[in-house]
Design a protein that fits this description.
Layout lengths: L11 E5 L5 H10 L6 E5 L5 E2 L5 E2 L6 E8 L11 H15 L6 E3 L3 E4 L2 E11 L6 E9 L25 H19 L6 H14 L6 E5 L6 E8 L5 E5 L9 E3 L3 E4 L4
Parallel strand pairs: 1-2
Antiparallel strand pairs: 2-5, 3-4, 5-9, 6-7, 7-8, 8-9, 10-11, 10-14, 11-12, 12-13
Length: 262
């Protein structure tokens, strides 16, 4: 990959040969006053962080791994939609480069045929310039089946893209995020922009309508049927054993497993 020119303002890319966690590095830059729009990517990430503090490593130059710095001037209650916005942008970018058919698993995994192709981790960072969002994205690109860390993972290569170009993917991803973010975070934006984003997310979300098991931060797992995504981005789950008219539970944080029908 190389530095990219001609990206929509204020986005700009820096490429590192190797990094532990681009989210951690970009968080430090944010606290030091880095303006919005920096995209920090690495050819080899050695200590990537996922949700629930999971760590992962990819072979050099086999994945697209990086983080974006955003400073949205929007109401705090709208921030939970940022991971959903990023997930939608990833699907936009893959479509733009002729990638495989993908779907989303709530809240922010990108799947191909039920296998995890990409993941997103958003972290809020408090800075002297106000809160910032560090949005980490890890997309398996040319990883072979033998190199994938778990059986339920996929890459663009294993999904049928024989010669995926990471530079083209990076450009498409930055452009897609910039376009989605510009409308959603524009001055005066609000319910209408949230509704449009949620419509796009729901249309791509494979979790809706499925039987799920949700590992919650506290307490017993929740099992039931995912019936929708709420206006604040929460997953709506009707608990197993309840009648169809029963109000669903709103899940704001949790690890979702799609349960296969017998």
């Amino acid at each position: 990959m190389s530095h990219l020119e001609g990206l929509p303002a204020p986005f700009r890319v820096e490429v590192l040969d190797e990094a532990g966690s681009t989210n951690a590095l970009l968080g430090e830059r944010a606290r030091a006053g880095e303006p919005e729009g920096l995209v920090l990517v690495t050819e080899h990430q050695t200590a990537g962080r996922g949700r629930l503090d999971r760590t992962w490593v990819t072979p050099p130059r086999a994945a697209l791994t990086g983080s974006l710095l955003l400073r949205p001037q929007v109401a705090a209650e709208r921030w939970p939609l940022l991971p959903l916005l990023t997930a939608v942008a990833v699907t936009d970018a893959l479509a733009a480069v002729g990638g495989p058919r993908v779907e989303l698993k709530w809240p922010n995994d990108v799947l191909h045929d039920g296998l995890k192709l990409a993941g997103i981790l958003l972290e809020r960072v408090d800075t002297d310039l106000g809160p910032a969002a560090v949005v980490g994205i890890g997309l398996n690109v040319s990883t072979t089946r033998a190199e994938l860390p778990v059986p339920n993972a996929a890459s663009l290569l294993t999904a049928g893209m024989l010669d995926p170009d990471r530079t083209a993917l990076l450009r498409a991803l930055v452009v897609a995020v910039a376009e989605r973010y510009a409308g959603w975070a524009a001055p005066g934006s609000g319910p209408a922009e949230d509704a449009a984003l949620l419509e796009a997310y729901r249309s791509r979300c494979d979790t809706i309508g499925r039987r799920v098991r949700v590992e919650l931060p506290r307490g017993e797992p929740l099992e039931g049927t995912a019936v929708g995504v709420a206006a604040d981005g929460a997953l709506l789950v009707r608990p197993a054993g309840t009648e169809e008219g029963t109000p669903p539970m709103a899940v704001h944080a949790g690890d979702v497993v799609h349960v296969r029908s017998e």
